[in-house]
Amino acid sequence: MAKLKLDLHDIYNKGQKIEAELQRLISEAVEKRIELVEIIPGKGSGALMKTVKRFLNRKDIKALYHRLKVDVKNHGRLFVYFRF
Question: What CATH number is associated with residue 58?
């Protein structure tokens, strides 16, 4: 199974860049029919995780993917599953 990965550690304090990268990642997954996307906002204070979840819960984005799961072993990592 093909997978895309996005680590947000380098751009954690650049709000517009974060959203642009998330949009690019989701669009690429849909375009290439990738079934799994891994997003790493990190543990930290949880603010970046909230930003990522808020983005993924937008109605237009949520319609594109099948399931969202926080890694049980590392709560600083999310998996987004697509069904094609």
Answer: 3.30.1370.110
What is the domain count for the chain? 1
Sign, Cα dihedral of 4, 7, 11, 16 = positive
Q: What mean pLDDT value characterizes the chain?
A: 92
Which residues in the chain come in under a pLDDT of 50?
none
Q: pTM for the whole thing?
A: 0.90
Distance in angstroms (rounded) separating the CA atoms of residues 48 and 36: 20
Residue 60: give the domain boundaries: 3-81
8 A C-beta contact, residue 10 and residue 24? no
Q: How far is CA 27 from the centre of its chain?
A: 11
